[in-house]
Design brief:
By secondary structure, the protein is an alpha/beta fold. It is built from eleven helices and 14 strands. The chain has two domains: 128 residues, Rossmann fold (3-Layer(aba) Sandwich); 193 residues, Rossmann fold. It is 35% helix and 23% strand.
């Protein structure tokens, strides 16, 4: 049983979160706390495996809880609950810097709160099952000649945990993840979290980034990540990231289609793409572009997804080489990269 303590000043949120967690037979809610001070006392008393922690609370907020928890003997994993606001993004980045293990976005519409149930349970389970990586070497400074593309939206972040942690070693490629998220800093917090569990270093994209081998890039929210081909003075071919404020596509920016299509043009047959969980049809046309340029295309199987809209959009275009279980995706990507040679 995974022992969870819920810390939130809202009676409504405490009730909803507790209710969602208790429906899973592998999770036991051992207690609730109404503010940060109460939460610290109950961490010491109940010794939970995981705490869910609201950021904005009276008496002591979530950031202060993280600071004080760092000095305690018992160190439960921490899942922050963040509001979908610019202030929420700023505080989430700060929470990750102070040792939070993961974060989850609370819908603005209370009617949609129940919809986060599966994501909440998945994140709690991931926290106790995924180990942090201790990398001894820094990122490569060798420009990548091959690229792996990952697109995801609703339900995607927990799957990114599983995918990146499943790689047993650094891959000789650049990996670009385009995850639909609100603007303001949430993708920076996601990159910081993924950096702790990936054998390859992870960073949020910056305009002008040269794509290096063995590096993972998370598309910055608010900009399309466009991959532009480049050639160095010595004649080495590779790619560069260009941030674009072009209008949203399928109501999202970054759009998976933009990243996939531009990368396919730049890297051609040395491209591998995969789509994880996500609502809508973004990614379908991009997957088709990868296929048309001779690349390798995959989507995760439906039973592993919270929402199957994006993967289904690609399947409807008959451009998917394989449908893969999430737990096998890392192996299949690695196999496809090896098949490219070089």
């Amino acid at each position: 049983m995974i022992r969870v303590l819920v810390i939130d000043d809202s009676l409504f949120m405490r009730t909803i979160i507790t209710d969602m967690l208790r429906k899973d037979p592998e999770i036991e809610v051992v207690g609730v706390a109404t503010n940060g001070e109460d939460g610290l006392l109950k961490i010491d008393e109940l010794k939970p495996d995981v705490i869910t922690l609201d950021i904005e609370m009276p008496k002591m907020d979530g950031i202060e809880v993280l600071k004080r928890k760092a000095t305690m003997k018992h160190q439960p994993k921490t899942l922050m609950l963040s509001s979908l606001t610019s202030q929420g993004a700023l505080m989430t980045k700060k929470a990750m810097a102070y040792g939070a293990d993961d974060f989850m976005l609370k819908p603005k519409d209370l009617a949609r709160i129940r919809g986060i149930s599966q994501e909440l349970v998945t994140k709690v389970k991931n926290l106790v099952n995924i180990a942090y990586i201790s990398r001894k070497t820094g990122p490569s400074i060798e420009m990548a000649d091959k690229i792996v593309l990952v697109g995801s939206s609703a339900g995607g972040p927990p799957m990114l945990d599983v995918l990146l942690s499943s790689f047993t070693t650094s891959l000789p490629v650049a990996v670009v993840i385009t995850q639909h998220m609100p603007e303001g800093g949430f993708t920076a917090a996601l990159a910081a979290r993924l950096n702790r569990i990936s054998p390859m270093p992870v960073k949020e994209t910056e305009n002008g980034d040269v794509l290096n081998s063995g590096q993972v890039y998370v598309s910055m929210a608010g900009y399309h990540t466009v991959i532009s081909s480049m050639v160095t003075q010595s004649g080495v071919k590779g790619g560069r990231i260009i941030h674009s404020r072009a209008p949203p596509e399928h109501s999202v920016r970054p759009a998976v289609n933009k990243t996939f299509s531009s990368a396919a043009s730049a890297f051609g047959p040395l491209t591998v793409s995969t789509i994880l969980s996500g609502m809508g049809s973004d990614g379908g046309d991009g997957t088709l572009a990868v296929k048309q340029h001779g690349g390798t295309t995959m989507v995760v199987r439906e039973s592993d997804c919270l929402v199957y809209g994006m993967a289904r959009a690609a399947l409807k275009l008959n451009c998917v080489d394989s449908v893969v279980p999430l737990r096998s995706m890392g192996t299949e990507i690695s196999r496809a990269v090896r098949a490219m040679g070089g």
